[in-house]
Amino acid sequence: MKSVKLIIYGQVQGVGFRYWVRGKFRELGITGEVWNNDDGTVGVEFQSKMEGSDPSIKLIGLLRQGSPLARVKKVVIL
Of 22, 26, 36, 71, which residue is the catalytic one? Predict the structure, then answer.
């Protein structure tokens, strides 16, 4: 397992984005954390198998789209 950290930029605070991400964690069976940063971004960290049909690939795609009320400008993988 590999730990993956991301920073999500855009209008992602105050729109239920963290709750939406936690719901995606549950749907995809991923263990992770999500938090607001002081600069208006959201941080995400989760565990990835990085092999086979890894659900984290789907998660990253969903994060790039964002929740219905969010406006994601960019996702940076650290």
Answer: 36
